[in-house]
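Sequence, structure tokens reproduced for absentees:
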Amino acid sequence: MLVGLLVNPIAGMGGRVGLKGTDGVVDEAIKRGAIPIAPGRAQEFLQTLESLHIDPSRLELVVCPNQMGEDVTQSSNLSYQVTDVVVTETTSSDDTKNCVLALYTSGVRLLVFVGGDGTARDILDIITEHNLDDLLVIGVPSGVKMYSGIFVVNPSDAAEVVKLVIDGGAGIAEFEIMDADEKAFREDRFIIKLYGYMRGPSVPARFQGAKQASPET
């Protein structure tokens, strides 16, 4: 099975320096001393995946270039290929969307991404735009708090879910993707809405579950 890996290298940086998210404030997060945490989460996922000793004939990773997957995968002993897509040095939502489409074109039907709710929304956008309905998604949380249901509890859980899918031990479920207004959060207003639904493996014990949408307060 071809399993895609996409890392949003800036996801979660803002939350660690009191910005309550990273959307639109990457430069400010860096000024405050934020460092990327997504690569470490991706590395934990890869280390667990490697420890599961899945038959190499049943698993090959397809990763995004450079800091969006390739860099962290190079330190593993897993078989992988790099998808043919160009990403910018300062990654954006367009890079995420282009990577998802390139991974899908490469034959990936199970995608593991490391990011936050914004990354999940970008992925859902490209799935919807190009009718990638047979793509299953697993989210590895990179940040302080996730609101969408597509995220597993921790990176190791993502590796366990991948193994279950390969072994035929997982069903399919639809997960809520939430739209949390990070700008409002920074102003101490809580605004979160349902954005849509995304398909992923059904392994309830491994997933966080979506947080309830609330009206503006």
Summary: Residues 61 and 136 are 15 Å apart (CA to CA). The chain has a mean pLDDT of 88. Strands lie at 2-7, 60-63, 80-82, 110-115, 136-141, 171-180, 192-202.
